[in-house]
Amino acid sequence: GAVVSQHPSRVICKSGTSVKIECRSLDFQATTMFWYRQFPKQSLMLMATSNEGSKATYEQGVEKDKFLINHASLTLSTLTVTSAHPEDSSFYICSALTRSSYNEQFFGPGTRLTVL
Amino acid sequence: AQKVTQAQTEISVVEKEDVTLDCVYETRDTTYYLFWYKQPPSGELVFLIRRNSFDEQNEISGRYSWNFQKSTSSFNFTITASQVVDSAVYFCALYPPPKNEKLTFGTGTRLTIIP
After folding, report:
1. What is the spatial distance between Cα A91 and Cα A108, in angstroms, rounded to a whole number?
2. Burial A65-102 (b: 16+ CB within 10 A, else e)
3. E strands in chain B
4. Mutation test of the interface with chain B: which of A33, A43, A59, choosing the one with the most B Cβ atoms within 10 A?
5. Which of A24, A58, B54, B78 can pair with B20 through a Cys bridge, CB separation 3.0 to 4.6 Å?
6. With an 8 Å Cβ cutoff, is B33 touching chain A?
7. Does residue A50 belong to the interface with chain B, where contact is any CB pair within 8 Å?
8. Which residues on neighbouring strands pair with residue B74, listed in sequence order?
């Protein structure tokens, strides 16, 4: 089946630093990837839709300058949390969309970000 | 607008009991897909099932079964003879391709199986 990886799986950083999270589709090409954020005991909240070769589409309320998304290739999308603050601490999950008949999304294992 | 409601926030049952997780959805699309995902403590979403709107047959996979009722816009999930390993958060999700590729998740049901 389709596999999506995320790196790093866990990161702890100091307030004010920037953190980059990578999302890779390992065995398929993904023209569209999604980035979600999940707070403890809450559901997944879609942050943005990332399309290869074009600018990401952000959901309402998500700061594009804060969460920079780059989808430079068909197998890689990155999310950079700029000038991270403790309130950015969360679980970030990416998914990649296949172009099968089901247009199914495959999810990465997630990245747990802790900002001190 | 689309919406998925999982009214049960938390459920606890004793091991070997059966348990049903409810999912009610709202959509104006006639073609859509419904999903169930399991999220264990590790955090990784595990795909359980996909059902398209034209297929109302119930499905059974081992101890898991799903009941899709289009008339009531429900897609309920039953675990038979629950086990401790079933403890997780379960999400129901709605996906209406092709014009809108966004998954709409429910708020999740936290299931605890008591040994």
Report:
1. 11
2. eebbbebeeebbbbbebeebeeebbbbbbbbbbbeeee
3. 3-5, 10-14, 19-21, 24-26, 33-39, 46-52, 59-61, 64-69, 74-79, 88-95, 104-105, 109-114
4. A43
5. B78
6. yes
7. no
8. B24, B69
Q: Tens-digit pLDDT profile for chain B (115 aa)?
A: 789 999 999 999 999 999 999 999 999 888 899 999 999 999 999 999 999 899 888 889 999 999 999 999 999 999 999 999 999 999 999 987 666 678 899 999 999 999 9
CA distance A26 to A11: 22
How many angstroms separate the CA atoms of B14 and A67, rounded? 43
Q: From CA A64, how far away is CA A96, in angstroms rounded?
A: 20
First to last CA, chain A: 37
Type of residue at B87: S
Q: Which two tokens stand for residue A105?
A: 């999304």
d(CA A24, CA B100): 23
- Tokens 């390993």, located at residue: B85
Cβ distance of B106 and A43 shorter than 8 Å: yes
Residues 6+ apart with CB under 8 A from B99: none
Count CA within 13 A, CB hemisphere, residue A58. Answer: 13
Q: Report residue A99 as tokens.
A: 């172009």
- Give the CA angle between residues A94, A95, A97 to the nearest 5°: 150
Residue A20's Cβ-count burial label (10 Å; 0-12, 13-18, 19+) is middle
